[in-house]
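Entry type: protein chain
Record version: 2
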Amino acid sequence: MLKMVPLSKIKDNPWRNLKRNPIEQNRVDAIEESIDTTEFWTGVYGRELKDGTVEIAFGHHRVEAAKQSGLKEISVEIQDFSNGEMLRRMSRENLRGDLPGSIEIVEAAVKALASGDIVLEVPDAKTRKDAIRYAPSFVPGKASGPSGGPHPYTADTLARYLGGVYVRKPRTGREENGKKRAQESVSAALAILELEERKIKGFSEKVLQVNGVGPDGRYMGAKKVLEYVADIKAREFKAAERAEKSAEEIAAEKAKQEKLAADIKARQAQEKKDHDELLSQRVKAAAKENAKESKRLSDEIRRKAEAAEAKAEADKIKMAALEASVEAKKAAAVEQRKEDEYLPIRREADRIIHILERRDLSEDLKALSRRPLTLKDRERVWEAIDDLAGWLTSWAAAQFSGPVKAPKLKRRTK
């Protein structure tokens, strides 16, 4: 049923995440320019809710363009869509394969799987366990319920449900084992969502927004994302491995402390027992007026008391050494953790320093200097060099001066 719907009563698709994949103003502007010249509104679908509002399955940029153009209503084809159909419509009508869109669609699909709004094929029995996830989690192997979780999925089963640009085109004209495989954009989206769920330190989407590498000028390509995520996970694994080793070493030292304390307690108990027995024997000897035996017992009591005192002093030294060892291992573990957390910053510093120190620019300049440049072009090159040197010695250097005295910058010659 085609119906004119006031813009004030139009709602977003419940699976749409505008924070994850925001409205792009350039697309809105292009749509706004074409409103009067095309049948652009034909084919917009949605569903009507009980309160009279309409949720559109897709077309959010069109709605924004209509608002900016001053329109009050648009035509919408009303159908009785389920939640699953709303998701499928959104994914099929926004087939671009860009990473922001893929993350939005993949996240929505996993949530829909967890809520029972969609059903995916069960992963093949031969599928590796580390490739299986359980909705609503994005972490491989993390079960969301009994017996491994009621909502298993993989990148491939998810991609096959979404279809379109989310599955690879077969190279040989035939599907591999009768099954289509997921595009790298799906795997990259799952990898990013996994890091977000696990709150991995050092991960930030800002790292993905570099140099306009991606198709939308904001994100790097899916292959680079997967390499980046793999590097973070490997670094996290090594840090966890080191932390586990440190914890084991500290636990071993504490066990030695506990055993030493128990041995000291047992020995002291035995010493007290022996001491009491000697005292009892001395009392008996004194009662029998056996002075010689009484003196022997007194000497033995004194000797054992001196030995016990010496042993106690040695135990104090051992205990102090163990305590110092435990504290040293704790301090080492703290320093290692700080080093692991700082590693991403050091890698970024290394990258920038490498750019500043590389010599390929000097080779290009040397080659250019040998060319028969006009005086005007030589002046232009010199002005550019002078501007760069000024920028490095003023603004760039000032960013790192701070409380630390900045080193004198030396101009390289070759």
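Comment: The beta strands are 2-6, 10-11, 45-48, 54-56, 73-78, 133-134, 152-153.
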